[in-house]
Write a structure and sequence with these properties.
Structural class: alpha/beta
Strand order of the largest sheet: 7-6-8-9-10-11
CATH topology of the largest domain: Rossmann fold
Number of domains: 2
Radius of gyration: 21 Å
Low-confidence stretches: none
Mean pLDDT: 93
Strand content: 5-15%
Helix content: 25-40%
Order of helices and strands: EHEHEHEHEHEHEHEHEHEEHEHHHHEH
CATH architecture of the largest domain: 3-Layer(aba) Sandwich
Number of strands: 13
Number of helices: 15
Largest sheet: 6 strands, parallel
């Protein structure tokens, strides 16, 4: 069987390279073209590759796995018409993006930019990520509101969320449909938001209009960008915190993507491929400072930032804004910043029941 795998999906490359009866091609994204995949039976790809007629027409491909949660790079209608089976990683990086949000929130709390238990947080999108964030905010008694036009149980409108001091975007990306999210937040909102609101975007770059990238947002925290495969940094001003699409880039998220892709592959082709042993958790001793942080801030800010401080990714990304002459591409930097997730750590120490509940909600192991 002929298999094509994006070379940056290293675990899958290793698996297929060590199995008999598989002819593996490990290709860079730029080389994943119709002429190079024509005889492949299955593809394992990332979001940098568009899955459409231009790639798949007149090929032997029967199965495509997209190891990412987003789907705006996929032509579903074309796949249906061509009877090509699709596997996606939808939801696989939920915990990783939640970790990013609470790392950002921890920074805002310890730097006294927002007030614990009082600053209202607006969430746009109540899918897997938005609902998880809301459940934690509700538990720690942080005021919040949600806008999701697809869910009538939420009565808040977009303007209600934009009135919040912290706004976090977790909507899926679409240009069409009843409620398209393309440029959902646009020039008409910028006066209300610029310099006044902390805007966190981990959804898609195109949910915001160009003005948000051309303005130096001193309160913007951006992880996603427009045209990431060919970013023009001369048109982008560095915001307060900038990271190269690393919110969902944890070891746990990638393991989830790989497990789901192999499960679907096995189901389609009747195989019994097993993943190699996943990374074990690390033990981490804790003390009473966690309970003190939770009492003061609602969450264990010190622990969160010890494990994942998004300002470190911001520092690595800063050179892209400081100089147009960079040695690494956006995607290369993104891949190099893969991290351990909260669930890769087992906490050792005594905690009260409330602190335990919060720790477990955040994804740590006890």
């Amino acid at each position: 069987m002929n298999i094509v795998v994006d070379k940056d999906l290293q675990e899958l490359c290793h698996i297929f390279d060590n199995l008999e009866n598989f002819n593996l091609q490990s290709l860079a994204p730029a080389d994943i073209k119709r002429e190079n995949i024509k005889h492949a039976d299955a593809l394992f790809l990332r979001s940098v590759t568009k899955i459409d007629d231009h790639l798949l027409k007149d090929t032997n491909v029967k199965f495509v796995a997209s190891l990412t949660s987003g789907e705006d790079h996929i032509d579903h209608e074309m796949l249906d018409n061509a009877a090509i089976t699709l596997s996606t990683g939808k939801g696989g990086n939920t915990s990783a993006v939640v970790e990013y949000f609470f790392s950002a929130l921890s920074i805002l709390l310890i730097e006294k930019k927002i007030i614990p238990y009082k600053t209202k947080i607006g969430i746009i999108g109540h899918g897997r990520i938005g609902s998880k964030i809301k459940s934690i905010l509700d538990f720690i008694e942080f005021p919040n509101t949600v806008y999701d036009p697809y869910l009538p149980e939420f009565t808040s409108g977009l303007e209600d969320v934009l009135d919040c001091n912290v706004i976090s975007l977790h909507c899926s990306y679409s240009m069409n449909g009843k409620y398209p999210s393309h440029h959902l937040i646009n020039k008409s909102h910028i006066e209300k938001i610029l310099e006044k609101k902390y805007l966190i975007n981990t959804s898609r770059g195109e949910v915001l209009s160009e003005e948000y990238y051309q303005s130096k947002g001193k309160k913007f925290i951006f992880d996603v960008w427009p045209k990431e495969s060919n970013m023009d940094f001369s048109q982008i001003k560095k915001p307060f915190i900038a990271t190269p699409h690393t919110a969902g880039k944890s070891i746990s998220a990638e393991n989830n993507f790989s497990k789901n892709a192999i499960k679907d592959f096995n189901s389609f082709f009747g195989r019994k491929i097993e993943l190699t042993k996943l990374e074990a958790s690390d033990d981490l001793k804790i003390d009473k400072s966690i309970e003190e942080d939770i009492k003061a801030f609602g969450i264990p800010v010190g622990l969160i930032l010890k494990i994942y401080n998004i300002k470190k990714d911001d520092l690595s990304f800063k050179k892209f804004f400081d100089s147009r002459q960079v040695s690494e591409s956006f995607q290369e930097l993104r891949i190099s910043l893969k991290r351990k997730g909260f669930d890769n750590y087992k906490l050792l120490g005594k905690l009260n029941s409330k602190s335990k509940a919060i720790i477990e909600l955040l994804g740590f192991r006890l």
